[in-house]
Amino acid sequence: MKKVKPKMGQIDYGIFYTVFLLLAIGVVMVYSASSYWAMFMEHDNMAYLKKQFVYAIIGLGAMFFMMRYDYHKIRKWTNTLLLICIPLLIATFFFKDAKGATRWIRLGPLSFQPSDLVKYVVVLFLASSLSRNGEKVKDFWKGIVPYLCISGFYAGIILLEKNLSIATIIMIVTMIMLFVAGGKKFHLFGIVTPALIAAASFFTLSTPYRRARLLNFIDPWKTADKEGYQLVQSFYALGAGGITGLGIGKSRQKTLYMPEPHNDFIFSIIGEELGLVGCVLIIILFIIFIFRGIRVAMNAKDEFGTLLAIGITSVIAVQVIINVAVVTGSMPVTGVPLPFISYGGSALVMNMMAVGVLLNISRQTNKKEF
């Protein structure tokens, strides 16, 4: 029999417009935050703006494509993508490190961070397998441990790249998806969570630079000229911004005080230039995205769609929480970019592609949206 093509409805415009606004704010703020740094380092104050604009266009193209590509078809690529990710992650060790971390594959002017792809491939795998195995997730040894081992394998390689933040995100999202799939609370929060916290504590305390970051987080002013420097500069930026900010382009901390202000700490520059009002606006946009993402998951036509939507939404949400927490000094400093806003090609394109999948899921629902 001829297969019937699934009927496509309207996309979730709440997600679409929210992401578009975040992307537009991101492009503007990357230019504002990077102009001084780019002039000093690249001799072109628009160097990072040009690159981010190209990444944004590619990302939008990827989003529109995935928005129209039936998400069920992605499922058949799960195992292939899992296998492809392994040599990509290993390949990073053959390229020159950056500040001691080997996270990138560099080909001339282009660079790619495989972990940006891996976190979504792990989500795809979990959604595909959990939706197929059903009630097995209630069994600890057969339904929880195998998934933790597979996610842990990829997180482990990423950890060897000295990228604890992305490895942590993968494990947190794995826990969220196992819980949504029906995993028992005692298994996840009584056994697995304490074990993961113990493991994270061991890796943090056993590594000198991570241990220094933890101690710096407790009292950054004590090492304000060394390990605490970036966080202290972030405090200065947020404090200077006040309620309404100094105005776009008027940040003082971006003038070589804040290292690479267009990357992980761009939120502090937003706070300085747009003030509390700008920060709250961005947080509200992310809350809308998360809320609509959860609605898409709840209204998905099948369990695969539900788990995939939850996974994609969780990846974005966890990154936002960690980034804002780091910039405001609520947790130890770690390298997590702010989705759709921080400078970075592979992260932006992968996030936009994932949003496209989320929008495609929103098109295939039997329930009415509001």
Provide the helix percentage.
Answer: 55-70%
Order of helices and strands: HHHHEEHHHHHHHHH
Radius of gyration: 21 Å
Proportion of β residues?
under 5%
Structural class: mainly alpha
Can you count the beta strands?
2
How would you describe this structure to a colleague?
By secondary structure, this protein is an all-alpha fold. The chain has one domain. The chain is built from 13 helices and 2 strands. Strands 1-2 form a two-stranded antiparallel sheet. A hairpin with a 2-residue loop joins strand 1 and strand 2. The longest helix is centred in the C-terminal third of the chain and has 34 residues. The mean pLDDT is 88.
Describe the SSE topology.
Blueprint (H helix, E strand, L loop, with lengths): L12 H30 L4 H22 L2 H4 L3 H14 L13 E3 L2 E3 L1 H20 L6 H21 L3 H17 L4 H22 L1 H11 L10 H13 L24 H34 L3 H25 L17 H19 L7
Antiparallel strand pairs: 1-2
Helix pairs in contact: 1-2, 1-11, 2-13, 4-5, 5-6, 5-7, 5-12, 5-13, 6-7, 7-8, 7-12, 8-9, 10-11, 11-12, 11-13, 12-13
Spell out the key features of this protein.
single chain, 370 residues, mainly alpha, two-stranded antiparallel sheet, 2 strands
Task: Please give a quick description of this structure.
The protein is mostly helical.
